[in-house]
Structures are given as C-alpha cells and as structure tokens.
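ARCHIVE CARD
Drawer: 12
Card no.: 0347
Subject: one protein chain, sequence and derived structure
Cross-reference: see card 0346
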Amino acid sequence: MDSRSHTPVTAALRLCLHTLLTGLLALVAVRAVDEGAPHAGAVVALTLVTAGVYGAGALAGRPGPAGAGVRAGAGARATSVRQRASMRPGTRAAALWLAALCALWLGLLVLSPDALWVAFPLYFLQLHLLPTRWGVPAVVVTAAAAITSFVVHRQEIAPGAFIGPLLGAAVAIATVLGYDALFRESERRRELIVELVATRAELAEAERTAGTLAERERLAREIHDTLAQGLSSIQLLLRAAERTLPGDAPATAHVRAAREAAQANLAEARSFVRALTPPDLEHGSLAAALERLCARTTGPDLTVRFAVSGTPVELPTPYEVALLRTAQSALANTVRHARAGRAEITLSFMDTSVALDVVDDGRGFDPSGAPVAERGDGGFGLPAMRSRAATLGGTLSVESAPGQGTALAVTLPLAGPRRSQERAA
C-alpha cells in the first residue's frame, strides 16, 4: 500500500485499517494459545506469515494501479473508472499480493474459527485493489468462506453466522462505492471550477484586448486630427513663406529649417498613427482589409463579394477605421439576423465624399419600427454606426423591408481643400 498520505483523513483511515487487520491477526493468535487449540503453533506461525506479507505490501507502496500504489481502507483515494476498467501491470501485482493474503487467510480459517473476523478488512482491500466487476464477487466469496468456516467449526447453523459476514460485506460495498461516487463528483466539480477559472481569464483577456484596440483607435484619431493635421498646415505655410522670400534673405534658411523640422515631425506622427491603426489596416489599404473581411465571412450559407468604385485615394486614418468597423458590424448583423445567402460590399470614391454600401438579400426588417435595443434583441449596431459616421461629419442611411433584404450606406465627406492638403502632405 502507498505509504505516502494524500490527505490527513486518508492517512488516518489507512492507519485504522492497518491497526484493525493487525489487531485481528493478533487476536486470532492469542485466542489459539489461550484456549490450547490443537494447532496453536501452526495458527501463530500462519498469523505471523500473514502479518509479514501484509506489512511487505504496505511498505512496498507500488503494487497499486498505474503506479499509484495499493490503496486500502474506506478512506483511501478511490481508483478512477479508467483504472478499474483494466488490469494494468501494477494492478496485477496488487492482485497477486491480495491473492496471497486471501490464501493465507483461508489457511487460518481451516485452523481457527476466530480467523473469520479478518474478513472485514479483506473486504475493503478487495474492493479497492480490484475492478468493481471483480471486487464485489470477491467480497461475496469471502463472506461465503467466513460463513462456511463458522458452520464447520461450530457444527451448528445460527442466524448470526450468516448475518455478521453478510452485513459486514454490505457495509464495505456501500462504503467503498459511495466514496467512489463522492470522489467522482468532487473531480467533476474540480474540473468545472478549472473551466470556469479559464473562461473568466479568457473573458478578462478579451475585455483587455477590446479596450486596447479602442484606445489605439482613439489615439490614432486624436493624433491624426490634431498633431498630424497641424504639422501638415505648418509645413504648407512655411513652404509658401519660403517661396515668397528672396533667395538671399537671412530668414530663408530659418524658414527652410523650420519646414524640414515640421516635415520630419509629420512623418513621425504618421508613423505613430499607422502603429495605432486596427490590425486589419496594418498590412495594407482599406480596400485590402475589406476584401479580407469578405473572404473571412464567406461560408457555406453566405457568399460575400467586395467591389471598389471610382479612383481610390488615400483616406485619413479615422475614415478608414470608421468604414472598416461599419463593414464589420453590418456583416455581423447579416450573419446573425438576416439569414441571407448573398451580400455585397462596395467602396465608392467620389469627388467630395467616400461611401460604403453593404447590401444583402436577407429577410430584412422595418427601419421605422422600434430600435433594436428597444425590441429586446440587446444589440446597438445601427446606433453605434450612425454615431461613428456623425462624429466624422457623415451620414448613415438604411433601406430595408420585411422579406426584401437590407441596404446600408455610410457616406463621409472629403472636402476639396482637405484632399489637396492630404495629397500635398
């Protein structure tokens, strides 16, 4: 038996089993000597041999299943279902050790009727060392052997001869199987707690990631709309001032140095903006990001296509972020609610504006009805898209009807001077 204690309770119960078996064996030897039994010497010798074999197994600590050691006692750690399902090499060693103990005990039964009391600790050993389908029959056979020994030695049939061994066997079976059930339930709860802790960690990580992305977008927008645009204006003004100054004017060198410093800082600010843009925009243009989005969303039940209309121009980072997020949210609504088979995203570049259209052939809805949040769906996609477009001076329009699909269009203005400034920068 494994001499290493797993918990104070199991260690105490194992000690109780050792004490019980040792005490019963001592009782058999003492009674045989006191009563002057015909085979007292043989009883004492066989008792010592049995105690030695039991002690050797207890000290070996490695005959149990899967190297866990032989476990004895009602409180020992229950073997798992998989360990009980097959006889592994360690289990076979434990079974041989148990068979030797049972054989020695049968020899004691033949010599002394008092040996039947040793059957009770043997019940627990059999139930813990053998699979359930073998342990229970072994307990029944052990109880039958104890009853037979009593009848043979006493030459009488009494109710107590049957009730005692059978009751002990029933108590042992109920105790061990009940402990196994409690252990399995405890393992299931432990696994559930582990899963809950892992899920909580994943949710916390997802929240941190979402917060980081939102902060990156906000910083990119602030840097672009303030520092980058201010430095770009300073650069244009200094270039104009440099052109108006004579070539030999003392201030020309200072103006040129200031313009170059503004240009270098503008490049640095733009590098910060690029580093803070969403991951989908880090490796290409807005059109490429939208095309990848369509490819990811396309599945067995939905085909999403992407098209570009007009001549593409470089858009401010807040515009790219807003259009990408709008497309992501619109496609998410299409996948979750529209039951559509086909969707199209079109990015249109015009002289004074840029537009994003998302059209699907789903079941549609009534735009004039209650907002999604008021209908109890728990979503805020359309209000968020409309607010994002309004922040940039744009508009969001939705056309839909039950059974006729949905068309969503967001338009952002591109003022002439602003486009010229972007190109010059």
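Annotation on reverse: The radius of gyration is 42 Å. Confidence is low (pLDDT under 50) at residues 1-6, 62-89, 370-380, 417-425.
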